[in-house]
Design goal:
By secondary structure, this protein is mainly alpha-helical. The chain has two helices and no strands.
Length: 101
C-alpha cells in the first residue's frame, strides 16, 4: 500500500496515526529499549555493595550490550521523529481550522 503524505491526510487520519505511533513507541520503550538498558546496568553495577568482578566481565560483553542499545535507540529516534511530524502537522491543521472561523 502506498503511504500518503501527511499533508494529504485529514486531521482525523493524522490523529489516528499519531495515536498508533504513540502506542508503538510506548510498547517499544517498555519491551525493548528499557529492558536492554537495565541489562547493561546489571552487568556493570555493584551487587550487594560489592563491585562486579572485573576479570569475569569482558569488554566485548559490555560493548555488545551497548551496541544493542544504540541499535534500539536508532529505531526509537525514528519512531519519535515520525510522531513529532504528525504532531506538528496536526497542530498546523488545527491552527488553520481555528483561524478560518
Amino acid at each position: 500500500m502506498v503511504e500518503r503524505s501527511i499533508k494529504q491526510m485529514t486531521v482525523r487520519e493524522m490523529l489516528i496515526e499519531a495515536e498508533r505511533l504513540t502506542r508503538e513507541l510506548g510498547e517499544h520503550l517498555d519491551q525493548s529499549f528499557i529492558p536492554k538498558c537495565h541489562e547493561l546496568s546489571r552487568l556493570v553495577r555493584p551487587i550487594n555493595g560489592e563491585a562486579p568482578d572485573i576479570r569475569a566481565l569482558e569488554d566485548v560483553t559490555v560493548r555488545t550490550q551497548a551496541a544493542r542499545i544504540l541499535e534500539t535507540e536508532t529505531f526509537t529516534e525514528a519512531l519519535f521523529q515520525k510522531l513529532t511530524e504528525y504532531c506538528n502537522a496536526i497542530d498546523e491543521s488545527v491552527g488553520r481550522i481555528t483561524s478560518e472561523g
